[in-house]
Amino acid sequence: MYPVPFADPEQAVELAVRAEAFGFESVWANDHVTTQRYVRSEFEDAPRFYDPLGYLAFVAAKTERLRLATGVLVMAFRHPVVVAKQLATLDQLSGGRVVAGVGIGAYREEFEAMWPGRRVHRGEHAEEILEALQLLFTERRASFAGKYVAFEDVESFPKPMQDPLPVLSGGNSTGARHRAARWGHGWLPACLTPAEYASGIAEIESVAAEAGRELPGEFESCLQLAVSVAANTGGAKARFEESQVYAHLRSLSSSTMRGRLDDDLAMRNLIGSVEQVRDRVGRYREAGVDTFAGLLFATNTPEATIEEMERFSEDIMGGV
Questions:
Q1: Which residues contact 293 (CB under 8 A, 6 or more apart)?
Q2: Residues 129-170: pLDDT tens digits?
Q3: Within-domain flag for 3
Q4: 236: burial class by Cβ within 10 Å (0-12, 13-18, 19+)?
Q5: How open is the CA angle 279-282-288, to the nearest 5 degrees?
Q6: Residue 315: is it exposed, middle or buried by C-beta count within 10 angstroms (0-12/13-18/19+)?
């Protein structure tokens, strides 16, 4: 999402510390185990992909109220017994601040690098893990036998401090919405228009009702968006299209952003003047968005990111 190299460890933590000081309520760490092909082809050096849970544990010790979220934790990378232990530990140590955004991952090449030759339907695998996590978080002794995931008589303690620990289904696909409806405590898509978002929430509510499930009262409706605010639309779009965030979104043409790159990508994000972005935030709120998660500022250095975070805090968060 950012040029290589981007933030060193100290800068990565500073981004989160400054976010809390500016009034943001959460930080969202993503998850990669190897470098995507499009990044390898563009940059000579390898990127710094920190482990999200290790990073968030360090951020927890440096902050007081900031929610510690994954956007998203790729479920195929870890056994559910291990990830349940990691999430519960982080939730306990942080005083109940963890939000587990989970998904199948946008880049199949990462799964294939970890599991060469293994044939897995990633959506079915993800559904099994979501069900398994709920058992591990709630049962004294948990057992599960699925097509891809199995464990027996596991006592996973301590449990998370939060009851429930929010698990959000990440992704734009039908499968992601259905997993949110059946197992999730929220939905975490990216770059949808307000109308698309409202339609997705309606579908989740319908699928949940068909499954006989009442959505949690605190079901969290999130959305990941890129941000570029300038004096006018042209300037904001130019900055956006020159950023690595834009290249990242284009790389998702066959996965998360399939069918959504033919129109104006700027209209699917917070791109424009202060007044335009404030208006768009209002439209998203009317469509049901609770949390503007994983805001991807269209910048190419940590210093510029901090500057844009501060402006967004003052000009957008302070005015809506």
A1: 26, 28, 69, 71, 101, 188, 222, 223, 224
A2: 999 999 999 999 999 999 999 999 999 999 999 999 999 999
A3: no
A4: buried
A5: 150
A6: middle
Asked if 115 and 77 touch (Cβ cutoff 8 Å), the reply is no
Written as one letter, the residue type at 243 is S
- Return the closest-CA partner of residue 68 out of 55, 77, 78: 55
Q: At 297, which CATH number?
A: 3.20.20.30
Please tell me whether residue 270 adopts helix, strand or coil conformation: strand
- Tell me, yes or no, if the pTM score tops 0.85: yes
Residue with tokens 């404030």: 278
Instruction: Please tell me the distance from the alpha carbon of residue 218 to that of residue 89, in angstroms, as a whole number.
Output: 22
* Residue span of the structural domain in which 150 resides: 9-319
Q: Tell me if 1 is assigned to some domain.
A: no
The residues facing 144 across adjacent strands are 151
What pLDDT, in 10s, does the model give residues 199-227?
999 999 999 999 999 999 999 999 999 99
Amino acid at 93: L
Q: Which two tokens stand for residue 309?
A: 């975070």
Q: Which of 123, 23, 26 is nearest to 68 (CA)?
A: 26
Residue 47: DSSP 8-state: P
Angle between helices 194-210 and 174-182 in degrees, nearest 10: 50
